[in-house]
Design the sequence.
């Protein structure tokens, strides 16, 4: 018997680096072998992803790690991609007026902030992520964004990661994405484990019975974790998966 039915993991800082450094293809291949055994032997939970990354990125990574059974959560809850049916499922609570707000906020950023070197991450459809080569300068515009969004009635939650600003629809999050995933799969919290490295991954913590993190995780995540790996990033994730196979 396996301890859990599924593991939900963040990507950046967990399965891959937070930086632009190359992913560890060898370690990802080990993870793919792990997922194949989850199907053929059934002695371990399959691992899927829950990330702020655009949907195509998450889908690609799920294909790389041989996740064939579990939906992945992309764009901080905007999308589920279900490999069982090859379906792309956008959160049905995202209405035309929300998409209009995304379009209007994008135009504001392109007109006012792009000339200052702020770049919008390609690939997102119902949120906006911003980058600048000078990270402290980027983070300094967060109060300006919040004020502008409130002034225009654009319903965004503004948060930051190591090198990005995320502008997400206020009612959509990793937590709502996980809730939708559980609804369509029938999975339940007592049989789930999760992995994260940044405060936004506390949404994963709320939906799983056991939570772990790699050694590079933020202090807030380490404080909330049941298990902290000795290794960073994907080597730490492989370490956690192996530990969780033993009752």
Sequence:
């Amino acid at each position: 018997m396996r301890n859990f039915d599924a593991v939900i993991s963040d990507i950046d800082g967990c399965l891959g680096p937070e930086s632009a450094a190359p992913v560890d293809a060898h370690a990802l291949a080990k993870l793919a072998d792990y997922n194949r055994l989850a199907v053929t032997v059934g002695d371990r939970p399959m691992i899927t992803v829950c990330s702020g990354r655009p949907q195509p990125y998450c889908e690609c990574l799920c294909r790389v790690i041989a996740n064939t059974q579990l939906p992945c959560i992309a764009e901080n809850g905007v999308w589920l991609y279900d490999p069982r049916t090859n379906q792309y499922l956008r959160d049905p609570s995202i209405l035309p007026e929300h998409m209009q707000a995304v379009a209007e906020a994008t135009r504001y950023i392109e007109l006012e902030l792009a000339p200052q070197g702020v770049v919008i991450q390609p690939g997102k459809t119902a949120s906006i992520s911003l980058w600048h080569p000078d990270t402290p300068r980027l983070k300094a515009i967060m109060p300006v964004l919040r004020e502008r969004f409130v002034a225009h009635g654009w319903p965004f939650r503004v948060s930051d990661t190591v090198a990005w600003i995320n502008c997400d629809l206020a009612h959509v999050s990793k937590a709502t994405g996980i809730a939708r995933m559980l609804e369509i799969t029938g999975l339940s919290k007592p049989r789930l484990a999760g992995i994260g490295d940044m405060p936004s991954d506390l949404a994963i913590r709320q939906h799983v019975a056991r939570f772990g993190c790699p050694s590079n995780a933020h202090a807030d995540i380490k404080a909330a974790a049941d298990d902290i790996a000795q290794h960073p990033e994907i080597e730490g994730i492989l370490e956690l998966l192996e530990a969780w196979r033993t009752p």
